[in-house]
Each structure stands twice: as structure tokens, then as C-alpha cells.
């Protein structure tokens, strides 16, 4: 069931108990977890946090850690699967689920005792009515029970007619139910960021601070950067957080000097779609950010020329553009944003900015929310062998704390490597015309043996690649139809087991984040008997045996045509 | 030169890093003891000869005597410094030593360790008088900043029962918020990492 | 702390103290011990009282409701007191083990009614420690040595505290005419220690003042 | 951590069990035998015959030289080792900072103090040199100890005598502790150093 008063129905229930917290592998989940940790620590709530990569791990972790645990919190996992059926928990175990994955599993929605959904009622769920889904009592058992017709034979005929009538109704109801379910589960998408939900909780408890707000902001920005939220919804949420920002930072406006440099200050600002430029050079950032790179078609000579022209038009000397942003001339650094936006308009990059936030603490540290998302994700999806995946998850969790700026800086470097690899892969795929229009969708396969292929064995990085590729393809394609095509990208996951990671993303033209690949992948797999693993909480990301790839995609094409 | 073998034992200890113990050098000790035996016998003989009137033996006796004292000092210092490290290990590793450290000990050192353990335990139990219930001095090594702390599991440690009977699974890469006093020893042993 | 009754404390000397006073005394003893190069006379009565106190508090807490904020604060206080006690006793124990021969010799020379620096339990541990060490040395090496070398000469091997090391101190009560030997050869000089002032001095000079609480080490 | 409570530099003090002291007293002193020692000729590899003849010159470890040369008896006479003679003393007084003291003797100061016990005529000058050298170098050592955090310090410590190394380490520990405190890390409960080192070694062995 949906929780209406998150404080009363969730927090007050667990405040003197031990809690098991299961956290999925995404930046939003990490941020939500951070906020929850802070609240729990204030109130001495003992907890155990376990990182969760997928469904299988969810089951294992629950089995292993649930001894003596009565309360389980799930962050960005568990919402879209039938928890009770999957985990088979004891009756006293209660699940609190903050999960942005949609659609929410309907059994979770209608279970009043054990499943509590921490999701804002303002979200658009389109939950079908209870009566359309569940029919209680007698009708349940008569479907299979022919033998219990022990009624006297005289009445049998009339009874038979009644039974027939009832069965017909039943069949109709079931068909309707099936259709409702089909409609409900047709698309996978995302709802409100879990970090925002946790921040809301903190605010309702008057425990909010700039630190918590920042995590809320980073969580929301993660959704935006990774195309998990529609622009309208993003703007609404940003507006909401902006109010909190003003409230928590108003003091700084008047007497700037009374605040210690160690304090954190957050303010709203228009942010450019230039990844990491404050920590890179403008030139590198332009090259590696999908929006300007695709607008200029940076992979062509002409595109490069155009970009140089653009820079010249702005009045920025190339030397300045190519050196580290931090060492650019003070004057240029200050006036750069104005010049940049002006030139963007002239060159047709109207969409270069978006509303976002900047945090500042200490003398040195000035971070924009998007860069933090890149850094945290870079750390979380690090492919170096030094640590395990869960090890990097914890590093990423650490780097969100202000005292661990060093780890965040490492994350920034890792993010640059991710972006560089993505950009290079996109360029070579465009050059080699390896992005194929398979009919109903665009398709790219990253071959094995590619040196940087390991980067794409991580779902989020593969997602960034898919969106960049799609944008680049659309930019080069003459046919307008390409904007209407969704895209599928596959990359090797594990060379030893011969598996691949596959992601599907909606068409470029579509404003909506609705994604129908979850269902399509499932059907294609069933039809072809492909060995697939639907383990990711995002159903549009699956694992499969590389051998089964061609038959799987053939089926997918005919399915979607 | 006399005393070389003995000082070699000392050098061995000097070279081995803090917190480690090189294998007990039984053979080295035997050789030093043998050198001492010979020195002593020669001195006995020379002293007897001097008593009998032989001249000029005194410098040799003097030299050997110095060598005997030196050897004794080195042997005892070898034993003492090993014992010191072993004592420190009681505080760092707890009452049970890792097997490969134990492997490097002599039988007598193992006995010493268990006697030290016993005496220490008896002392800690006695603190506060018969009704006091004792005080574990190997805990509370840092001034407490907070009642609860956040810890991260660095290895699979299995189940762990807290004071109030709660059972936790300490699995690698899980993170827990626990009473400081209950998990401090696991941090010291490197099972958990304290997260600030 | 304040609402906990300490009157039950068994010892007469500390009977009249409030819990806060007792804690302050333990903390003072702890700091003195921490910064003094030699082992100071034990404060067993204080330790016993504080431990009693801890156990009492622990019991109170176990009766408290879950999530009671007061219980948390008391728990914190318990942790803090336990830390001070454990640290105090640990420092003593380390000195005892380090200077074991020296201390036992001193012990043997003590007059009838001069109190020992060590508590009976500490003394027992010191004796065990010395005996264990001797057993170890005997079994492995001494036993096998020529006959005139078989003994462990306590006085020769005993490590003793360096009383000439310098310590920081704060004066609690005015002391006049403390003899200090100045650097160089001009002989001794007498100085007055003003209450509240802080100094760096050689430990040897101020040792007697610590024992009668005129100064505390910092 | 058991150690931090009492930090007397006992390592540096004369002590029957002290490893440093034993190694210091193992340093060699040039000696000349004044009387012959019967039956111990084999101690001098260059000697012929079974006895050590009077007049034989050889280097003896300090502990032995001291036993054979005291006010009571003079079985040998001693000379100061080279690093303590006029030539080196001049170098040290010219610029003590550049000298590799470790090479001159890993226990340069401690051994120098021991050498005083022979009552040689230049004992006073040696003692002056030690004091001068130490105070000149001390400033620099503390300065570098306070200024290189997380750096490879072997280049600095390589030229230090053992006493100086201890001081350097103390300085470094102070600096690290300060940085820990500054960054709020000092409250962190850490695994015992022994455990950490033990694990590290085990990992290396495992590879």
C-alpha cells in the first residue's frame, strides 16, 4: 500500500528497531541512502546496509541478513517485483519501499500489511482498480473444481446454466484483467527520485540541512542526466528543491562574511550541458558532452571547424579553451558563461542550459550537481580490478560525504575516462557506420576485444553510450524517421561465460521516458528460447548469452515491426 | 670474533619489522651456548694453570670473560625483545594468536604467552573488587566520541551476536550502525572499518 | 551523573564525595599517571567506587525504555568513564610491566607501614610477570649457561623510569621555595610556584608535589 | 594501541636489553695490544702463531675494547675511529647538514658518547662536535619531518643516524596526527598496526 504520512507510517515505526536497508546501484539510491543514514544516526537506529545489483542479489541478501530483522527498507529496488512472492518473508516482516522504478507491482500496491510504498501520492501511477484485478472468495475455487457438484440431479440443469453463465462472466473478467495488466505493464519508466523522498522525510522531521538537500539535488540530477525524468517533471522538482535552497541559504545573502568557509552553500543556477568543464578544459568538455558534440557533429572535419568558428565567435582564444578551466584567465572565466550562451543561440544550440544547483564549501570546492553525478557514477561503475563492484559502490557512497572530497576527485577522473571512452566509441561507430537501422529500431553491437569494452559492462555507462549514440545517429541521419526510432545497444558482459549486456532506450523524438523494451525483450526471449537473465531492476536492461543474440534480435525485429 | 653469533641473533630481530616475529632461532642459540661452554672451560683451565703458577694467562681470561658476559647479554636481550613483541601482540591480536605467528614461537614462548594471558585476565577480572565484575582493559582504546558508530565489513566474518542478543551477519561490503563498545575489537582486528 | 547516588560507595574516604567529584579525581589521577614517567601511588578506592557507579548506571539503563534519550546520554557517560578508567589502569599496567624488576625491588625495601605504589592485584600481576619472564629465560638459555652465569641479575637488567625527563604541569596550590637546579653550573635556585601557573620542569623536582596534589601534570 | 600511553624514548637509553645499545656497542674501535694474549692468536686473521702478540693492531668491538682498556687495566690501547678524528670533525663543522651520518656509523652519536669513556685527549672535542652537529642538523630534520606528508622520505632518512631517524619519525607522527585531527579523522577507530602489517605481509606472501 502507499504510505500517505511518511513520517508516521514509516519513520516512527522503525525508530527504535533494527532495520535492514537494501540499496540498488544508482546515484539516486546512494543519495537517498545517505539521507536515511543521517536520520538513523541521529536517532540511534541500528541498521545494516547491503548493496544490491539485481533481483538475484536481492533474494540472497534478504535470505542472509533477514534473521531477527522485522523491518526492511529498499531503495530503488523491489518496487516493481512482487516482493512477497519473490522473498517469501515471514509474516511479521514489513517492507518499506522507496523505488523510482515504474510500474509498481500491483500486489505490492494492494498489500496492506507487509508492503509499504514510500512514493509521493502526487506521482502519476494509473493503478487499476482493485476489483478489476482481484476477485475474492467462491469464484476462485469453482474454476477448477468440477467434482464438488454434489447437488441433486433435478436442479442440475438449471445449475449448469448458472455455472455456464458465471464461467462466461469469469472469462470476460479475466480477459479484461489481462488487458488491464497488459496496459499497465506495457511501459517501464521512472517516478520521483528516492533521494527527494528521503529529503522530504528529513524536512518533515525538521532535520533537513544543506548536506541533506545536496544529496536530494544530486539524486534528482542523476535522473535528469540519465534520462529518467521528463523535462516537465524535472522542472517541477527543481522548483521544489529551489524553495528549500532559498530557505536553507537565505542567511548567506545578507551577511556573506559571517559564514565560515567550512560551511556549505547551495544556490540555484543555469547550468550548461557541458560535462565536467570546471574540472577539465572547455575544449575537452565540449568534445565529450553529447549535446554540443552531436550538434556540431564533432566527429567530422567540418564539425571541428564549426566548433572552432564557434569558439572564435565567442572571443575565446584556443589556448585558453584548451587549458585547464581552473587556470583560465579570471576575466574570461567570469564572463565565459554569458558569452557561451549567446553564441550557442546564434549557432542553434538553444537547448544548452538547464536549471540546476551549485554547492560551495571551503575555498576550493565548488561543484555543480551534474558533475557530482558523473563522479559518483564513475566511481560506482569503476572497472578497475582493485576492488569488487560492491567495493566501488561503497567508495561511491563515501565520496558523497564532504570530508571525502579526495574520493570525489578520483571519481571525477574516472568519469572523464568513462566519457572519453563513450565519445571515442561513438565516433568510431559513426565513422564505420556500425549503427544499424534494423527496421523498427536502431541497433549497435560493441564487439568483444574492443579495448575499453569493459566500461560498457556497467548498466549506467552502457545507457550513457546508448543515448549518445542515438543522438549522434540522429544528427547525421538525413531521414527524419530516425528520431522516431528507439535504440538497442549490446555489449559484452563477461567473456568467460560468453554473456552480453543489452539495453533498450525510447526514441529521441519522444519527450517521455516510457520504455517498452522490458516487455519486448521478455517476449523475444520466450519466442526464441534465448538464454536471457532479466536481473536488472530496470527491465529494459537484460543479460543474455552472446550466442543467442542473432535469433533474439530477429525475433525482436519481427515483434516490433 | 667472539660474540658474533650472538649479535647476529640481535641483528635478526633488528631487521624484522615491528609487529612481526622471525622464527625462533633455536640453532643460533645453541651455537652461542656452545661458544660460551668452550669459553668457560678454557677460562677454567687457564685459571687453574694460573693458580698453579703459569704466568701471562690473565689477559686471555679477561677477554674470554668479557665475551661470556656479552654472549649472555645478547641471548637474554634476544629472549626479552621477542617476549616484548609477544606481549604487544596480546594487546593487538587478542588472546589467540594467528597460526603462522604461533608457528614461529618456541614451546616455552607459547607457554609464556598463555601464562601472561592468564595473569592479565586474572588482573582484569579483579578490578573493582570481588563485586565489581572486572574491567576489560583491551577495550576502550580511544576516547569515545559517540555511542554508535558506522562500520563497514572488510571480510566475511560470519554471524556476530551483540550484547543485546541481536544476531548480525558480517558479510564483506555490508555496512552497519552499531554500538561502538560492541564492535571496537572487530575494528582492531581489521574485520570492520570505522566509517566517519 | 548528578542524579545518581554515590553515597553507597563503600570506602570511608570517598564516602562524602559526589559522583562528579569522584569523576574529577579519577580524571586528575589519569592525567598525572599519563604524563608522569614513573608509576604513581595507586588510587584503588577511587577506581572501585567508579566501577560500582558504572554498574549501577548500567542497571538503571537496562530498566529504561527503548529509545529513551536519557538512557542514551547515560550510556555515553558510561562509555566515557569506562574509557578513563581503562586508560588509567592500562597506563599503570604498562609501567608496571616495563619497570617490573625495579618496582619489585623497591617493594622489597619498603618499610612496614609504607603503602605500596601498586594495588594488591597489580602487585600480584607484577610478581607473575617477573616470575614468568624468569621461567622463560631460565628454560631457554640461563639453565644451559656456565655455572657462574646462570643467574638473572635483577639490578643489572632492571629498566627504571627516567625521572630527569621534563613534564608540563599546572600549579593547584601555591608552593614556595621549590629547589630547581638551573642549567649550567650555577647550582640550585629556589622558585615559587604561583597557583594556576603552568611550567615545564624536570620530573624529579616536582614529583613530591604531585603526590600531595599541589600540582597536576598536563 | 598499547604503546602511546607512555612514550619514553627508552630505545635511546642505555638498557641491558636494548637492541640499539647492543648494536652500538658492537661498533669497532682500533686497538693495539699492550700485552700478548696467549692462545687467542686465531682472533687476528693476519697473525701467525697461536698467540696474539703484544703490539698487534686490530679492530675490536667496543664492548671488548672497553673490557680490555680501563683505568684498572690496559691490555689494549685504543685510538678513535676515523669518523671521529680531526678530518671528519672538520667536515662536520664546515657543513653538518650534507654529511651522510648513517654511513659514518648508524649510531654516530651514541657510539661517540661511548667513546668518551676511554678518556682520550680529544674526548672534549669529539663531544663538542657531536653537540654542534646535532644542533645543526636537528633543525633541518624537524623541518623536513614537518614538511613532507605522504611522501617517500627514504631520501631524507637515508643519511640520518639512528637517533635522528627516531626523531624524524616522531616529527612525522606528530604531523600525521595533526592532519588527522584537522580533517576530523582522529576519532576514527583504526585496526592495530600489528594487525595491519600482518595482513599486508600475508597479502604479499599470497601473491
From TrEMBL, chain A:
<feature type="region of interest" description="Disordered">
    <location>
        <begin position="136"/>
        <end position="160"/>
    </location>
</feature>
<keyword id="KW-0235">DNA replication</keyword>
<dbReference type="GO" id="GO:0003697">
    <property type="term" value="F:single-stranded DNA binding"/>
</dbReference>
<dbReference type="InterPro" id="IPR003874">
    <property type="entry name" value="CDC45"/>
</dbReference>
<dbReference type="Pfam" id="PF02724">
    <property type="entry name" value="CDC45"/>
</dbReference>
<dbReference type="GO" id="GO:0000727">
    <property type="term" value="P:double-strand break repair via break-induced replication"/>
</dbReference>
<dbReference type="GO" id="GO:0031261">
    <property type="term" value="C:DNA replication preinitiation complex"/>
</dbReference>
<dbReference type="GO" id="GO:0051301">
    <property type="term" value="P:cell division"/>
</dbReference>
<dbReference type="GO" id="GO:0006270">
    <property type="term" value="P:DNA replication initiation"/>
</dbReference>
<feature type="compositionally biased region" description="Acidic residues">
    <location>
        <begin position="136"/>
        <end position="145"/>
    </location>
</feature>
<dbReference type="GO" id="GO:1902977">
    <property type="term" value="P:mitotic DNA replication preinitiation complex assembly"/>
</dbReference>
<dbReference type="GO" id="GO:0003688">
    <property type="term" value="F:DNA replication origin binding"/>
</dbReference>
Automatic annotation (TrEMBL), chain B:
<comment type="similarity">
    <text>Belongs to the GINS1/PSF1 family.</text>
</comment>
<dbReference type="InterPro" id="IPR056783">
    <property type="entry name" value="PSF1_C"/>
</dbReference>
<comment type="subunit">
    <text>Component of the GINS complex.</text>
</comment>
<dbReference type="InterPro" id="IPR036224">
    <property type="entry name" value="GINS_bundle-like_dom_sf"/>
</dbReference>
<dbReference type="Pfam" id="PF24997">
    <property type="entry name" value="PSF1_C"/>
</dbReference>
<dbReference type="GO" id="GO:1902983">
    <property type="term" value="P:DNA strand elongation involved in mitotic DNA replication"/>
</dbReference>
<dbReference type="GO" id="GO:0000811">
    <property type="term" value="C:GINS complex"/>
</dbReference>
<keyword id="KW-0539">Nucleus</keyword>
<feature type="domain" description="DNA replication complex GINS protein PSF1 C-terminal">
    <location>
        <begin position="145"/>
        <end position="195"/>
    </location>
</feature>
<comment type="function">
    <text>Required for correct functioning of the GINS complex, a complex that plays an essential role in the initiation of DNA replication, and progression of DNA replication forks. GINS complex is a core component of CDC45-MCM-GINS (CMG) helicase, the molecular machine that unwinds template DNA during replication, and around which the replisome is built.</text>
</comment>
<protein>
    <recommendedName>
        <fullName>DNA replication complex GINS protein PSF1</fullName>
    </recommendedName>
</protein>
<keyword id="KW-0158">Chromosome</keyword>
TrEMBL record, chain C:
<dbReference type="InterPro" id="IPR031633">
    <property type="entry name" value="SLD5_C"/>
</dbReference>
<comment type="function">
    <text>The GINS complex plays an essential role in the initiation of DNA replication.</text>
</comment>
<keyword id="KW-0539">Nucleus</keyword>
<dbReference type="InterPro" id="IPR008591">
    <property type="entry name" value="GINS_Sld5"/>
</dbReference>
<dbReference type="Pfam" id="PF16922">
    <property type="entry name" value="SLD5_C"/>
</dbReference>
<feature type="domain" description="GINS subunit">
    <location>
        <begin position="69"/>
        <end position="139"/>
    </location>
</feature>
<feature type="domain" description="DNA replication complex GINS protein SLD5 C-terminal">
    <location>
        <begin position="161"/>
        <end position="218"/>
    </location>
</feature>
<protein>
    <recommendedName>
        <fullName>DNA replication complex GINS protein SLD5</fullName>
    </recommendedName>
</protein>
<comment type="similarity">
    <text>Belongs to the GINS4/SLD5 family.</text>
</comment>
<dbReference type="InterPro" id="IPR038749">
    <property type="entry name" value="Sld5_GINS_A"/>
</dbReference>
<dbReference type="GO" id="GO:0006261">
    <property type="term" value="P:DNA-templated DNA replication"/>
</dbReference>
<keyword id="KW-0158">Chromosome</keyword>
TrEMBL record, chain D:
<keyword id="KW-0235">DNA replication</keyword>
<comment type="function">
    <text>Required for correct functioning of the GINS complex, a complex that plays an essential role in the initiation of DNA replication, and progression of DNA replication forks. GINS complex is a core component of CDC45-MCM-GINS (CMG) helicase, the molecular machine that unwinds template DNA during replication, and around which the replisome is built.</text>
</comment>
<comment type="similarity">
    <text>Belongs to the GINS3/PSF3 family.</text>
</comment>
<dbReference type="Pfam" id="PF22466">
    <property type="entry name" value="PSF3_N"/>
</dbReference>
<feature type="domain" description="GINS subunit">
    <location>
        <begin position="87"/>
        <end position="181"/>
    </location>
</feature>
<keyword id="KW-0539">Nucleus</keyword>
<dbReference type="Pfam" id="PF05916">
    <property type="entry name" value="Sld5"/>
</dbReference>
<dbReference type="InterPro" id="IPR036224">
    <property type="entry name" value="GINS_bundle-like_dom_sf"/>
</dbReference>
<feature type="domain" description="DNA replication complex GINS protein PSF3 N-terminal">
    <location>
        <begin position="17"/>
        <end position="69"/>
    </location>
</feature>
<dbReference type="InterPro" id="IPR038437">
    <property type="entry name" value="GINS_Psf3_sf"/>
</dbReference>
<protein>
    <recommendedName>
        <fullName>DNA replication complex GINS protein PSF3</fullName>
    </recommendedName>
</protein>
<dbReference type="GO" id="GO:0006260">
    <property type="term" value="P:DNA replication"/>
</dbReference>
Amino acid at each position: 500500500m502507499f504510505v500517505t504520512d511518511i513520517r508516521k507510517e514509516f519513520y516512527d515505526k522503525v525508530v527504535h528497531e533494527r532495520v535492514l536497508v537494501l540499496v540498488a546501484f544508482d546515484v539516486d539510491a546512494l543519495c537517498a541512502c545517505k539521507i536515511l543514514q543521517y536520520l538513523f544516526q541521529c536517532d540511534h537506529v541500528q541498521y545494516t546496509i547491503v548493496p544490491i545489483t539485481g533481483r538475484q542479489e536481492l533474494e540472497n541478501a534478504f535470505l542472509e541478513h533477514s534473521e531477527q530483522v522485522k523491518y526492511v527498507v529498499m531503495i530503488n529496488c523491489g518496487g516493481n517485483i512482487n516482493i512477497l512472492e519473490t522473498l517469501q518473508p515471514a509474516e511479521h516482516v514489513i517492507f518499506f519501499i522507496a523505488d523510482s522504478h515504474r510500474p509498481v507491482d500491483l500486489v505490492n500496491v494492494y498489500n496492506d500489511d507487509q508492503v509499504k510504498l514510500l512514493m509521493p501520492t502526487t506521482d502519476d501511477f494509473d493503478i487499476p482498480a482493485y476489483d478489476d484485478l482481484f476477485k475474492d472468495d467462491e469464484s476462485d475455487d469453482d474454476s477448477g473444481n468440477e467434482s464438488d457438484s454434489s447437488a441433486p440431479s433435478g436442479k442440475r440443469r438449471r445449475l449448469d446454466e448458472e455455472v455456464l453463465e458465471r464461467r462466461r462472466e469469469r472469462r470476460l473478467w479475466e480477459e479484461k484483467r489481462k488487458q488491464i495488466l497488459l496496459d499497465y505493464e506495457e511501459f517501464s519508466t521512472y517516478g520521483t527520485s528516492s533521494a527527494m523522498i528521503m529529503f522530504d522525510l528529513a524536512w518533515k522531521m525538521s532535520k533537513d540541512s544543506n548536506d541533506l538537500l545536496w544529496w536530494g539535488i544530486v539524486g534528482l540530477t542523476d535522473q535528469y542526466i540519465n534520462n529518467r525524468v521528463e523535462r516537465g517533471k524535472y522542472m517541477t522538482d527543481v522548483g521544489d528543491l529551489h524553495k528549500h535552497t532559498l530557505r536553507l541559504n537565505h542567511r548567506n545573502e545578507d551577511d556573506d562574511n559571517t559564514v565560515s568557509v567550512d560551511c556549505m552553500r547551495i544556490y540555484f543556477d543555469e547550468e550548461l550541458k557541458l560535462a565536467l568543464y570546471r574540472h577539465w578544459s572547455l575544449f575537452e568538455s565540449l568534445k565529450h558532452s553529447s549535446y554540443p558534440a552531436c550538434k556540431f557533429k564533432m566527429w567530422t572535419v567540418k564539425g571541428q571547424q564549426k566548433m572552432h568558428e564557434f569558439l572564435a565567435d565567442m572571443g575565446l582564444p584556443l589556448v585558453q579553451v584548451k587549458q585547464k578551466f581552473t587556470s583560465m584567465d579570471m576575466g574570461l572565466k567570469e564572463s565565459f558563461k554569458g558569452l557561451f550562451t549567446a553564441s550557442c543561440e546564434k549557432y542553434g544550440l538553444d537547448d544548452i542550459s538547464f536549471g540546476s544547483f551549485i554547492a560551495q564549501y571551503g575555498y576550493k570546492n565548488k561543484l555543480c550537481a551534474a558533475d557530482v553525478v558523473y563522479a559518483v557514477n564513475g566511481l560506482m561503475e569503476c572497472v578497475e580490478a582493485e576492488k569488487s563492484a560492491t567495493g566501488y559502490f561503497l567508495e561511491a557512497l563515501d565520496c558523497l560525504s564532504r570530508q571525502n572530497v579526495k574520493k570525489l576527485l578520483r571519481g571525477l577522473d574516472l568519469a572523464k575516462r568513462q566519457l572519453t571512452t563513450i565519445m571515442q566509441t561513438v565516433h568510431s561507430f559513426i565513422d564505420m557506420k556500425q549503427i544499424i537501422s534494423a527496421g523498427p529500431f536502431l541497433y549497435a553491437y560493441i564487439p568483444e576485444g574492443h579495448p575499453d569494452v569493459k566500461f560498457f559492462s556497467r548498466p549506467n555507462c552502457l545507457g550513457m553510450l546508448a543515448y549518445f549514440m542515438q543522438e549522434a545517429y540522429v544528427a547525421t541521419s538525413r531521414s527524419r524517421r530516425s528520431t522516431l526510432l528507439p535504440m538497442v545497444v549490446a555489449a559484452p558482459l563477461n567473456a568467460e561465460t560468453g554473456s552480453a549486456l543489452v539495453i533498450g532506450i525510447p526514441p529521441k523524438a519522444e519527450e517521455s521516458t516510457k520504455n517498452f523494451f522490458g516487455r519486448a525483450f521478455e517476449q523475444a526471449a520466450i519466442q526464441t528460447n534465448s538464454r536471457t537473465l532479466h536481473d536488472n531492476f530496470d527491465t529494459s536492461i537484460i543479460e543474455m548469452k552472446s550466442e543467442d543474440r542473432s535469433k533474439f534480435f530477429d525475433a525482436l525485429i519481427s515483434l516490433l515491426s | 670474533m667472539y660474540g658474533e653469533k650472538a649479535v647476529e641473533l640481535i641483528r635478526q630481530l633488528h631487521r624484522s619489522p615491528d609487529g612481526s616475529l622471525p622464527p625462533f632461532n633455536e640453532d643460533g642459540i645453541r651455537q652461542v651456548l656452545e661458544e660460551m661452554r668452550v669459553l668457560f672451560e678454557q677460562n677454567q683451565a687457564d685459571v687453574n694453570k694460573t693458580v698453579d703458577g703459569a704466568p701471562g694467562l690473565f689477559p686471555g681470561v679477561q677477554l674470554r670473560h668479557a665475551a661470556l658476559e656479552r654472549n649472555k647479554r645478547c641471548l637474554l636481550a634476544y629472549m626479552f625483545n621477542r617476549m616484548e613483541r609477544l606481549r604487544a601482540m596480546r594487546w593487538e591480536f587478542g588472546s589467540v594468536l594467528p597460526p603462522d605467528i604461533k608457528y614461529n614461537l618456541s614451546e616455552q614462548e607459547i607457554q609464556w604467552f598463555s601464562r601472561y594471558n592468564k595473569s592479565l585476565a586474572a588482573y582484569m577480572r579483579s578490578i573493582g573488587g570481588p563485586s565489581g565484575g572486572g574491567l576489560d582493559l583491551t577495550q576502550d582504546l580511544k576516547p569515545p566520541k559517540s555511542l554508535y558508530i558506522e562500520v563497514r565489513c572488510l571480510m566475511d566474518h560470519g554471524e556476530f551476536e551483540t550484547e543485546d542478543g541481536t544476531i548480525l551477519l558480517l558479510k564483506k561490503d555490508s555496512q552497519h550502525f552499531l554500538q561502538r563498545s560492541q564492535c571496537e575489537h572487530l575494528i582492531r582486528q581489521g574485520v570492520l572499518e570505522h566509517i566517519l | 551523573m548528578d542524579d545518581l547516588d554515590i553515597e553507597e560507595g563503600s570506602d570511608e574516604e570517598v564516602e562524602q564525595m559526589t559522583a562528579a567529584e569522584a569523576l574529577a579525581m579519577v580524571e586528575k589521577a589519569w592525567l598525572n599517571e599519563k604524563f608522569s614517567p614513573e608509576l604513581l601511588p595507586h588510587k584503588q578506592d577511587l577506581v572501585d567506587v567508579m566501577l560500582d557507579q558504572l554498574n549501577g548506571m548500567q542497571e538503571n539503563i537496562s530498566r529504561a525504555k527503548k529509545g529513551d534519550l536519557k538512557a542514551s546520554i547515560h550510556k555515553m557517560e558510561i562509555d566515557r568513564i569506562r574509557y578513563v578508567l581503562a586508560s588509567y589502569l592500562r597506563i599503570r599496567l604498562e609501567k608496571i610491566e616495563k619497570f617490573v624488576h625495579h618496582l619489585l625491588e623497591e617493594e622489597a625495601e619498603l618499610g612496614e607501614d609504607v603503602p605500596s605504589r601498586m594495588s594488591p592485584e597489580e602487585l600480584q600481576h607484577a610478581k607473575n610477570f617477573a616470575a614468568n619472564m624468569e621461567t622463560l629465560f631460565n628454560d631457554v638459555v640461563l639453565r644451559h649457561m656456565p655455572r657462574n652465569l646462570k643467574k638473572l641479575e635483577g639490578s643489572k637488567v632492571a629498566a627504571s623510569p627516567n625521572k630527569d625527563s621534563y613534564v608540563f604541569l599546572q600549579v593547584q596550590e601555591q608552593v614556595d621555595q621549590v629547589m630547581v637546579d638551573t642549567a649550567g653550573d650555577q647550582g640550585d635556585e629556589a622558585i615559587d610556584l604561583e597557583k594556576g601557573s603552568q611550567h615545564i620542569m624536570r620530573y624529579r623536582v616536582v614529583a613530591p608535589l604531585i603526590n600531595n596534589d599541589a600540582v597536576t601534570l598536563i | 594501541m598499547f604503546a602511546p600511553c607512555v612514550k619514553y624514548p627508552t630505545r635511546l637509553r642505555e638498557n641491558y636489553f636494548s637492541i640499539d645499545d647492543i648494536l652500538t656497542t658492537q661498533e669497532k674501535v682500533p686497538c693495539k695490544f699492550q700485552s700478548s694474549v696467549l692462545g687467542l692468536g686465531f682472533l687476528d686473521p693476519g697473525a701467525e702463531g697461536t698467540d696474539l702478540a703484544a703490539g698487534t693492531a686490530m679492530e675490536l668491538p667496543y664492548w671488548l675494547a672497553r673490557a680490555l682498556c680501563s683505568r684498572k687495566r690496559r691490555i689494549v690501547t685504543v685510538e678513535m675511529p676515523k669518523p671521529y678524528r680531526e678530518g671528519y670533525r672538520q667536515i662536520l663543522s664546515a657543513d653538518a647538514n650534507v654529511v651522510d651520518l648513517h654511513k659514518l656509523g648508524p649510531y654516530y652519536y651514541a657510539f661517540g658518547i661511548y667513546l668518551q669513556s676511554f678518556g682520550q685527549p680529544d674526548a672534549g672535542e669529539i663531544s663538542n662536535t657531536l653537540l654542534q652537529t646535532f644542533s645543526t642538523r636537528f633543525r633541518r630534520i624537524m623541518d623536513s619531518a614537518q614538511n613532507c606528508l605522504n611522501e617517500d622520505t627514504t631520501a631524507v632518512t637515508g643519511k640520518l643516524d639512528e637517533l635522528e631517524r627516531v626523531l624524524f619519525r616522531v616529527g612525522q607522527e606528530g604531523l600525521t596526527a595533526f592532519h588527522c585531527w584537522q580533517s576530523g579523522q582522529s576519532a576514527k577507530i583504526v585496526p592495530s598496526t600489528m594487525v595491519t602489517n600482518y595482513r599486508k605481509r600475508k597479502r604479499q606472501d599470497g601473491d
